[in-house]
Description:
Layout: E1 5-10, E2 25-30, E3 40-49, H1 52-58, E4 82-90, E5 103-107, E6 125-129, E7 133-135, H2 142-146, H3 149-162, E8 170-173, H4 179-191, E9 194-199, H5 204-212, E10 217-219, H6 227-238, E11 243-248, H7 254-262, E12 263-271, H8 284-292, E13 296-299, H9 302-306, H10 312-328, E14 336-341, H11 345-352, E15 359-363
Parallel strand pairs: 8-9, 8-11, 9-10, 11-12, 12-13, 14-15
Antiparallel strand pairs: 1-2, 3-4, 3-6, 3-15, 4-5, 5-7
Helix pairs in contact: 3-4, 3-10, 6-7, 7-8
The protein binds NADP nicotinamide-adenine-dinucleotide phosphate.
Amino acid sequence: MPESFQQIRLESIAEAPDHRVADHLRPVGVSAVPSPWGDELLVRVVLSPIHPCDILCAAGLVPKRAGARDGSDSTEFLPGIEAVGVVEAVGSGLEDEFEPGQRVFVCCWAPWGRWEEANGVWSEYLLVKKENVIAVPDGISDSSAAMFMVVPVTAYVMMIEMLDLQAGDWLLQNASGSAVGRWVIALAEELGINTINLVRREEQVEELKQETGAEHVLWCPSDGSANPRLQQEILRITGNGRVKGAFDAVADGLSATLMLNVMSRYGTLIVYGVLANSGVALGFDASVRMVLEGMKITGFSLQNWWLPDTPDEVKQRVYRAVWNHIRNNPALNPQVESIYAFKDVDQAIRSSLEPKTGKVLLCPRSADATHE
Ligand SMILES: NC(=O)c1ccc[n+]([C@@H]2O[C@H](COP(=O)([O-])OP(=O)(O)OC[C@H]3O[C@@H](n4cnc5c(N)ncnc54)[C@H](OP(=O)(O)O)[C@@H]3O)[C@@H](O)[C@H]2O)c1
């Protein structure tokens, strides 16, 4: 075991969830690798993605953990939601279930209010409980395993568990070039579900079509100026009001208004992200349709789904299905934009906020920068 290890801490809350977050994160050396107690595992982190939620946490917009996950008494916030790593040591109570050398996915979410159990995976070594860990099957790359929950499981649960989408159904989504959006497109393609995909940059229309094979990618400028035209276009593509569900990661009200205006009776709009940092105020036309057509708007966070509310057999069924999809369909392996060592976390954060086709990931040391 090394004498010291690397981790990333948030020194102070950032002014806004943008590139300024980079100036508030700091790589530090920690002097001793902790040992696991009875129900703990010591995991050596290999790769961890940077997600929009990490940026929101660093700007104080999502509650966060105070205190590092390293056995020390530091009260600085240690960020990071999910990672792939290797079990280094097993607490005495878990010896029948885990063994050193085993590859595991780690997810550190917490029940609302119990922030002392949340986050903290941007650390070369970390102590976790059994409920934070899922064994990674063979045949799955480290990079796909590192974003298992936030990208594939999120998309799968919204599409299959919540909307029960079937072949021939129509799904509308925004922020479609995101990692989640691309996974939605790829699974829909595999299952024969039709998607209409909105992007905020005009140049991304052709890019996304070529990169994913999606047939319908539409430019949706952030000011909503194209929405009346888009409404007609979507109704034409779907043959009038056949959109069964919509995913809104932007939450600016303009998207939700457009989505409700093209949705079928009893359709469901899932708001699952707040990328616009504004709020969902519906247009009057969409409000009327929602009432008269019995539509639902629901918020979704995989954090809640992952917590004890969901029966364990449902979770196990979903995990098995998602691992199988990833293993059997190369398009369902989320793309990697770049990998940065912890010491370059500032560059990594800035890069994660640039237009890109894949995820930016962190690894503890430069020499580990591989995702195969
Ligand atoms: N609720 C949940 O459980 C859950 C789980 C996972 C993810 N999410 C949410 O899902 C969304 C996508 O996450 P991800 O990890 O897949 O993202 P990602 O790969 O980091 O990509 C972010 C995407 O969002 C787009 N974007 C950023 N700001 C936008 C805005 N104001 N309007 C429209 N598009 C915008 C970007 O477009 P450009 O290419 O134009 O920059 C980019 O395509 C995020 O909101 C995230 O918080 C929620």
